[in-house]
Amino acid sequence: MISKSLLPWVKRCLFLLALLPLSRLFWLGFTDQLGANPVEFVEHSTGTWALVILLLTLTVTPLHRVPGWGWLVTLRRMLGLFMCFYASLHVLAYIWLDHWFEWSAIIQDIAKHPYVLVGFLAFICTIPLAVTSTDGMMRRLGKRWKTLHSLVYLIAILAVLHYLWLVKQDISQPLGYTLILAGLLFFRLHRKLKNKI
Amino acid sequence: MLIGRPPDIVSSDITPEHVFRQRRELIKAAGLGGILALGGWRHLGFAAGTGHQPALQHIQKTTYGREEKLTSYRDITSYNNFYEFGTSKEQPAENAGRFKTAPWTIAVEGEVLKPRQLGMEELMKLAPLEERIYRMRCVEGWSMVIPWVGIPLASLIKLVQPTANAKFIEFISAADDATMPGVRAPILDWPYREALRLDEARHPLTILALGLYGEMLPGQNGAPVRLVVPWKYGFKGGKSIVRIRFVEKMPQTTWMRAASTEYGFYANVNPTVDHPRWSQASERRIGTGLFTKRIATQMFNGYAEQVGQLYTGMDLRKHF
């Protein structure tokens, strides 16, 4: 357990840490190190970090319950918002850098290709969660807040599917994320069932 | 995991495109064309260096793709799909260093009157080396412009004299698990196999490439010899070829075996037939930077005039 006076500092550090992937992209961009296909690099990088932060967000509960790190819960909102931030950058890179706001091509791409569709749905689902992340909204929504925010599980499943379906042949990387997500979901399911009995 | 950054290439090791162009112009102007050894460039006062591979000698210039802006040597040799060396774009350049390309022989066999084991020396003597600047369109939606050096595949076909039964040619790539780390993983059914119809293989645009930018091929680009069929998606160009087999029945290629609904035998570049998972209507030209739009993909990758007649009467939606 960490002391209450330390917590604001932990939050500040986490904030700066979560900005590192974005800073890195700017650094690589300005020093011409984004590689032969910079658009793909930016898309993959922002997408990967959105997924990583999403899985970190889902790791908070198990760490809170098992080792009893209750203080972690106070970091969860920031992690969730950063997930939404990187997902937005990912979508922005797709709409702007990849497709230059050619809406007809984008709509066709979403409608025709399942991996784009599930990714898009995952992003749409993050919006209400970000909007209702404030204390005021939590109070106003009361019990419904928790129900609404269980959307995060759907987002995680869609995000992992998005990655799995996008890969051409070697699925080892998305499979890794799938296994981690499966573990995190299993933990919750297991607890729920145990509590019922 | 994030995508790693491409390996460092000392910038002085790269022949800048304008220098490359300059040299081409100079050589042309001097009327030395195919006579002057490219290795001799080094002594012409352009001290920029000629890259990391030995230069190829006696290359005849051609008019193919002269209007195109070349993709840089660095991009061509650091962004590769060559799963035998790993499935990321950077791994082939990182891992191809240990792959031995000399000595090298290609077994040419099957429905031919004169089956042969061809060494690289013999192969290079089949026809004058030609520079062919071709667009290369990857099935993943990106493209490059590459100054290949090679010989027409037709010259090899002529040498071995196919029998009347020969209808297709199969190209089998190296699969050495000691030096190709990707082969140790069951990602594809190794060795990599590609194939062409005999008339496609005989087409003057089809070449066996031995080099690029005037130099021998680096490992990651398919050294020492690979197939280049510019009107088809890049995966049709089998790399590091060890066996060429003339057969009667249409062979099953590696990608057809892996996903027959996604990759067909013909794999002609066709903006109107989408891959099930992505559109083929447009492509991203490599090397044009972060803020450049995609360009429209052309039918047969812009070679429709030359190759369209090979497919008259065929339903290209069905034979994708």
UniProtKB/TrEMBL annotation, chain A:
It is found in: Cell membrane; Membrane. HAMAP family: MsrQ. The gene is msrQ. GO terms for cellular component: plasma membrane. GO terms for molecular function: electron transfer activity; FMN binding; heme binding; metal ion binding; oxidoreductase activity, acting on diphenols and related substances as donors. Residues 46-160 form the Ferric oxidoreductase domain. InterPro entries: Fe3_Rdtase_TM_dom (IPR013130), MsrQ-like (IPR022837). This is Protein-methionine-sulfoxide reductase heme-binding subunit MsrQ. Its main location: membrane. Its cofactor is heme b; FMN. Keywords: Cell membrane, Electron transport, Flavoprotein, FMN, Heme, Iron, Membrane, Metal-binding, Transmembrane, Transmembrane helix, Transport. It comes from the Bacteria.
TrEMBL record, chain B:
GO terms for molecular function: metal ion binding; molybdopterin cofactor binding; oxidoreductase activity, acting on a sulfur group of donors, quinone or similar compound as acceptor. Mo-molybdopterin binds at residues 80, 83-84, 138, 173, 221, 226, 237-239. Keywords: Metal-binding, Molybdenum, Oxidoreductase, Signal. InterPro entries: MsrP, OxRdtase_Mopterin-bd_dom, OxRdtase_Mopterin-bd_sf. It catalyses: L-methionyl-[protein] + a quinone + H2O = L-methionyl-(S)-S-oxide-[protein] + a quinol; L-methionyl-[protein] + a quinone + H2O = L-methionyl-(R)-S-oxide-[protein] + a quinol. Its cofactor is Mo-molybdopterin. SUPFAM superfamilies: Oxidoreductase molybdopterin-binding domain. Its EC number is 1.8.5.-. The keyword Mitochondrion does not apply. Residues 100-255 form the Oxidoreductase molybdopterin-binding domain. It comes from the Bacteria. One of its GO terms (biological process) is protein repair. Coiled coil: none annotated. Pfam families: Oxidored_molyb. Belongs to the MsrP family. Heterodimer of a catalytic subunit (MsrP) and a heme-binding subunit (MsrQ). Part of the MsrPQ system that repairs oxidized periplasmic proteins containing methionine sulfoxide residues (Met-O), using respiratory chain electrons. Thus protects these proteins from oxidative-stress damage caused by reactive species of oxygen and chlorine generated by the host defense mechanisms. MsrPQ is essential for the maintenance of envelope integrity under bleach stress, rescuing a wide series of structurally unrelated periplasmic proteins from methionine oxidation. This is Protein-methionine-sulfoxide reductase catalytic subunit MsrP.
